[in-house]
Write a structure and sequence with these properties.
The chain is an all-alpha fold. Strand 1 and strand 2 form a beta hairpin. The longest helix has 17 residues.
Length: 180
C-alpha cells in the first residue's frame, strides 16, 4: 500500500499504526499488513470526524445566564451537530460493535486516542508486551468488518462434497433433522 494513496486526513506524523506498518517483523514482512493498516486509519478518521475527542479550547466570552452558549457546556449537543458528524459516530459505533467489547478497547486506545502500547496495556489491564498481538487481532476483525479482508468461511453448496476437498465442511445438524 502506498502512503500517497491514503485519504486527505492522513498525516504520517500522527499515525500510531504507520510505524507498525513500516516496521519489519522478520523476513522483510511488516508487522501489520495493508488491510489492517487501512482499517485502523479508517477507524481513526471516523473518530476524528465524529468529534469525540477532548477539546482543548478556552472560551473567553462572558457566560450569560440566558442560555446563549449553554449547549456547548452540556452533554446534549447532538442537535447542533451536522449529518456528517452523526454518520461518523454511527460508523464508529458499528465498527466497535462488530469488533466486540473484548477487542474494541485496544483499538480505541491505540487508533483513536493514539496512546502507546504500554499505557494501553496498563489501562486495559493486559499482560505486559501483549498489546501488539491483541491489536493485530483487533485490526484483523476490523478489516473484515470493513470488507478489506474476505471471510474464509465457505459458501453453502447444494451439491454433495467430499471430505478430501479443500472447502468441505461437515454439517452437524442438517436442516429438517431434529435431534432428541
Amino acid at each position: 500500500m502506498d502512503i500517497k494513496a491514503l485519504p486527505d486526513h492522513f498525516k504520517p506524523s500522527e499515525s500510531p499504526l504507520l510505524r507498525l506498518f513500516q516496521l519489519k517483523a522478520g523476513a522483510l514482512k511488516s508487522y501489520i499488513d495493508a488491510p489492517q493498516f487501512a482499517a485502523g486509519e479508517k477507524l481513526r478518521g471516523d473518530y476524528e470526524r465524529a468529534h469525540m475527542g477532548q477539546r482543548v479550547v478556552s472560551a473567553y466570552s462572558p457566560s450569560t445566564g440566558s442560555g446563549g452558549r449553554h449547549w456547548q457546556m452540556s452533554d446534549n449537543a447532538v442537535e447542533k451537530m451536522n449529518d456528517a458528524t452523526l454518520a461518523a459516530r454511527q460508523r464508529l459505533h458499528n465498527a466497535f460493535a462488530a469488533v466486540g467489547p473484548e477487542l474494541s478497547g485496544i483499538l480505541y486506545q491505540v487508533c483513536c486516542l493514539t496512546s502507546g502500547f504500554e499505557s494501553a496495556e496498563a489501562v486495559l489491564a493486559l499482560p505486559p508486551r501483549s498489546g501488539k498481538a491483541v491489536l493485530k487481532l483487533a485490526l484483523t476483525r476490523l478489516a473484515r468488518h470493513y470488507g478489506l479482508i474476505k471471510s474464509k468461511t465457505p459458501k453453502p453448496k447444494d451439491e454433495i462434497s467430499h471430505w478430501a476437498m479443500d472447502d468441505y465442511r461437515p454439517t452437524f445438524n442438517p436442516q429438517g433433522v431434529h435431534l432428541p
